[in-house]
Amino acid sequence: MARILLTGATGLVGGDVLYRLQQSSLSDSHISCLLRDPEKAQKLSESYPNVEIIQGNLDDSDLLEREASKADVVLNLAASDHVGAASAIAKGIQGRQDPGNVPYGTNFDLNLTEKGIGYRLGEPRCLPQKR
Hints:
This protein is of the alpha/beta class. 34% of the residues lie in helices and 17% in strands. The protein contains four helices and five strands; from the N terminus they run βαβαβαβαβ. The protein has a five-stranded parallel β-sheet, with helices on both faces. Helix 4 (83-94) links the parallel strand 4 and strand 5 (104-106). The longest helix is centred in the first third of the chain and has 12 residues, at 12-23. The radius of gyration is 14 Å and the shape is globular.
């Protein structure tokens, strides 16, 4: 079973990706989502009871490094320009017992259609967006 770490799961892109992961052949994967807002974490848990919620934020380098070290795939969709988060994730991937090929994607640079996810903007998200 693949282990997927996802940041930005309550945002526009991350929410769409989480939805598509749950609808794809990767739905049996262990998916962990980093969330900073407890209220959004509760809503996400209700919508996706099989998703592991990791309470934290992009500034928590130790947490990101630890979680990335456990992941087979890392999708950093929260803020691709957050240098500290990207560095912590990279350090975590490098620190794995078997670093192998851990796909690491930020926003649109990972071609998810190759994995059968068929990602498209506009699909239902895990949380309604406030207008």
